[in-house]
Design goal:
The structure holds two protein chains of two kinds.
Chain A: E1 11-12, H1 24-45, H2 49-67, H3 72-77, H4 80-98, H5 108-118, H6 127-137, H7 142-153, H8 158-165, H9 169-193
Helix pairs in contact in A: 1-2, 1-4, 1-7, 2-4, 4-8, 5-6, 6-9, 7-9, 8-9
Chain B: H1 3-11, E1 27-34, E2 37-43, E3 48-53, H2 61-72, E4 76-79, H3 84-91, H4 107-117, E5 125-126, H5 127-133, H6 140-148, E6 161-162, H7 175-184, H8 189-197, E7 202-205, E8 210-212, E9 227-230, H9 233-238, E10 242-243
Parallel strand pairs in B: 1-4, 5-6, 8-10
Antiparallel strand pairs in B: 1-2, 2-3, 7-8, 7-9
Helix pairs in contact in B: 5-6
Classes of the chains: A mainly alpha, B alpha/beta.
């Protein structure tokens, strides 16, 4: 697995010449703490590996541009992860809308390959299993898919998922549980089709 | 598969990005030496983005950073050191082959600056020539505005663009700096200004019947006995001269 290097040696974050606008230090921390969650989110929603990386960078750039407009008080109480995932989801929806006229083949091939290289060896599930799961995930409707990815792949609490999906926590729970049940049916159907 | 097994398997699908996502977002900056003195340069993994003389910011790199941040809305951090490749290229920016990141600019600004890059070392062109190159004949003033915002002066040679009347025009770091840069490139400024005072803007050769801008390297090879001058391109064309393919006068 690739280690992304937080590079504190390389950079010095700028001092507070204008504290109300300068949030670069906070921002870098925010990126480091959430890059895996945001990247995984795009990847498991169906973006290819390199596309997911572009979308991840774009998400953080948008976050930065919003962040500089926030007051320090607002930034202090901001819950970074659900906020970032909300930006990511909007970006993903925009992307789907823009590319709806020219659908990209199956986005699954490239990143299923990635999945095999990035799996932690000990907890290993087989490559083919990961691919089957990815494929089954693409059979879910958007809200179920988002809910399942956030809950079981990113390990986010239901409260945060509810924030992202703008629904009550109970709804988030049921989206996750129905999503997983549907995954089970899809996996079973795939099994029988073989 | 059991539900619990599915949940556990899902947990293994999380992945780290292969490239640092900050790479595409964060800009670095530092101080470099240029022919016009000490300057601040902003760069990222793609290339150089923004260059300004340190004196414009009271020699305060943090002031440069906050200006950059407010202008482009991008995070910026001070690099421990500017990469050697960038530092040495900026010692002689007019000949630099540095990769540029112009993604912050509008299409028109990018087109104007790319056209300015085509002006050879040691030659100058009027603003209307630049407008013609980007396909907007009448937009000489607009090209001037785009050049005034040149994020990479010296590297993108906006100092090689002058007025059609023959004066040097404006420059982001002041006209004396523009003159200094052009002299260091050995542009025949004295001759050009002599001609301009007589209202002459083009020179031709009676042997080749080609008409050029006076700074064109083809024009500078014309011997005095064969040299003719024109106040307008139309006059030269009517007299049977053809425009030089190297400087493409308009």
């Amino acid at each position: 697995m690739h280690e992304t290097e937080p590079s504190p040696v390389m950079i010095r974050v700028i001092g507070n010449s204008s504290p109300e606008k300068n949030c670069d230090g906070e921002f870098i921390e925010m990126v480091r703490g959430n890059q895996k969650a945001v990247f995984t989110f795009f990847l498991r929603l169906g973006a290819s590996g390199s596309h997911a990386e572009d979308l991840t960078s774009e998400t953080f750039l948008r976050a930065y541009r919003a962040l500089v407009k926030y007051s320090p008080e607002k930034r202090a109480v901001l819950e970074a992860r659900p906020w970032l995932i909300t930006i990511a989801l909007n970006l993903w929806r925009n992307h789907l809308r823009d590319s709806s006229r020219q659908p990209m083949g199956s986005p699954l091939e490239e990143h299923s390959l990635q999945a095999t290289t990035q799996l932690p060896e000990a907890a290993a599930i087989s490559a083919s299993q990961a691919q089957e799961l990815s494929l089954a995930l693409s059979g879910l409707c958007e809200s179920q898919r988002v809910a399942v990815v956030l809950r079981h792949i990113n390990g986010m609490p239901y409260a945060e998922i509810a924030t992202v999906l703008k629904c009550p926590e109970g709804t988030a729970k049921s989206l996750v549980s129905r999503g997983v049940q549907k995954l089970q049916r899809l996996l079973l159907a795939a099994e029988e089709a073989k | 598969m059991e539900l619990d097994a599915i949940k556990a398997a899902l947990g293994n699908l999380a992945a780290e990005p292969t490239h640092d996502p900050l790479e595409g977002v964060l800009t670095f900056c530092g101080e470099v030496a240029t022919p016009l003195g000490s300057a601040y340069v902003a760069f990222n993994s793609v290339g150089v983005i923004f260059l300004r003389l340190a004196s414009l910011y009271d020699n305060d790199l943090e002031l440069f950073c906050s200006t950059y941040r407010n202008q482009w809305w991008r995070p910026i951090a001070i690099a421990d050191r500017v990469p050697q490749k960038i530092a040495s290229a900026l010692a002689n920016p007019a000949r630099s082959k540095l990769p540029l990141d112009l993604s912050n600019l509008s299409d028109f600004e990018r087109a104007v600056l790319s056209a300015a890059m085509q002006i050879p070392y040691g030659e100058i062109r009027p603003y209307n020539w630049l407008a013609q190159q980007v396909g907007h004949r009448g937009a000489a003033r607009a090209t001037g505005s785009a050049l005034a915002k040149n994020p990479l002066p010296m590297i993108i040679p906006c100092h090689r663009v002058v007025t059609a009347a023959g004066s040097l025009g404006n420059y982001i770091f002041g006209v004396p700096a523009k003159e200094l840069l052009l002299r260091s490139e050995d542009v025949n400024l004295a001759e050009i200004s002599d001609l301009a005072q007589q209202g002459l803007r083009f020179v031709g050769s009676t042997t080749t019947r080609v008409v050029c801008y006076p700074s064109c390297r083809q024009a500078r090879r014309i011997k005095a006995v064969h040299k003719v001058t024109f106040s307008a391109l139309g006059i030269a064309l009517t007299a049977g001269f053809r425009p030089c393919q190297s400087c493409r006068p308009v």
